[in-house]
Each structure stands twice: as C-alpha cells, then as structure tokens.
Amino acid sequence: MADDLAEDEVLYNDLVPIIYCSKCQQLNGLEGDGWTLAKVRRVCMLAGPAFLVSKCYRCNKCPGNNCKDYQFRAHDEGVIKQLPAALESSLNIRFTQHGAVEVSLMDFLLRNVSSGVSFADSTDAVQELHYITYNRSKLGHLQYTAERGRLAQKRSSFFMGSAGASAQVPQPPDFGAYKDRQGYRGWVPSRSYLTRMLLAYLTERLAWTKERLAMVDEVYLRGDHTFRSASKVKTAEGGKAYEAVYTVMNEFSQVAAQWMVGDTSFREIEGGL
Ligand SMILES: [Zn+2]
C-alpha cells in the first residue's frame, strides 16, 4: 500500500512510463547501464550546492549515432525534454543548459527585486549562504568523526581493558577545501549567472501567465497604484492631497476607471470595484 502511494502519487511515475533514446527516439536497443558519478549535474540551491546523480542508459548500435553504442544519463537534456510540462513545473528545480537552479532561490531573488533590495546585495546573500553551508558541513564532519573516534576508543577499552583505553583517537580525515573537485565541489554562483537564471525564470513565468490569460474568454481588468503623480498634487498647506492614483485597465490597456486615494487599503474604492 505504502509502496503504491510512493510510486504513483509521490514520484509521478505514471506520467513518465518510458524513457526513449535521446538520439534516435527509439526503444529497441535500449538498456539500463547502472549509475555513474561522472558528469553529475550540479544544482544551484539557495544556501548551497546540490548534485543530481542519475541512472545511465545505453542504446546499442543506435541508428541516430551511426550505429555505434550511445550512452546517456536520465538527466541529459534530451531526456528532460521528454518530461510532460506538468511534471517539470512540479519539480523544485529548473533545468538549465548544463545544470539546474532551485526554484526557492529564484523566488528569493524575485522577492528581493520586487521589494527594492539591490540585486548586488541579494547575490552577496546567496554567496554568503553558500559559504555558511560549507562551514557548517565542515564543522559537522569534524564533530561527527571526533565522536566516532571517542566511541571506538570506548569500545576498545571495554574489550581490551586499560591497554585499549590508552589508544589514541585518530585524527579526523581532512574535510577538504570549498572548491575541491574530489570533495565538497562548491562553487560561487556569480552575479551574472544569477541574473541570467532569474531572467529565464521570469520569461518562463510570463509564458504561463500569458497562456492562462489567453484561455479567459471574458473581459479581464488589471489595476495598480501609482504614487508619482499623486506626489505632485499638494494642498494649500503644502502637504500631500492624495497618497496614490489607482488605475484599472481593461484587456486592451484602456483606462476603465481611476481613483485618487488616501491609502492603498482599497477601502475607498470598494464600492467602485
Ligand atoms: Zn538510440
């Protein structure tokens, strides 16, 4: 019962019943080829790196590869493209050309951009979080290995008496540097990289919004506050007469209604809406 739930409702396996060869789009010579740590796909998360390890496949004598064997991974672009859009958008990562980014990271940047935090400061925050995660992992590693050493010593003193108790706790193995390619494999997500990712994410979201709006066959209205023009209107005493102008436009970008309002609470325009 629990297994059925995990397969069908959590992993959405029913949406991806078959993976086709990404070169020849066929199934004939396809077989599983185990797991590999080579060419892992890196994922830029909000607070640190993550790595996508996927299963390998081999298309024997692939017609799309001059009848030579073709090996590919489940996270290769050609396979990702086979995923239904519903499945891809439900993942908490978005694939890029060679890697992937976490959706929460994009939401974090987007939230900061819309609330006026400078992009430079936001990307600094992401870089700082990546280093903090590395330091925390390193500290955790040291504490864990020290604890294991103490436990080993306790065990040997139990079995061997005082001779075991005097045994030295071995030095924990080195955790390695931040960018160690054989170890932690950290990297610093640059400002230009994060800018590109955010723009791609926004474009993707825009496409979705446009698609949804195209499906609406009724009229739709959109409204927003503007503070600039209201700030120019002054009372005789020199104070502000209004806080903002609220404008409602129809689907042809024509102004349908406009209110001068004292605040942004919508209380004053409740009747009009
Ligand atoms: Zn093939």
TrEMBL record:
InterPro entries: DUF6729. Residues 20-150 form the DUF6729 domain. It comes from the Eukaryota. Pfam families: DUF6729. This is DUF6729 domain-containing protein. It comes from Klebsormidium nitens.
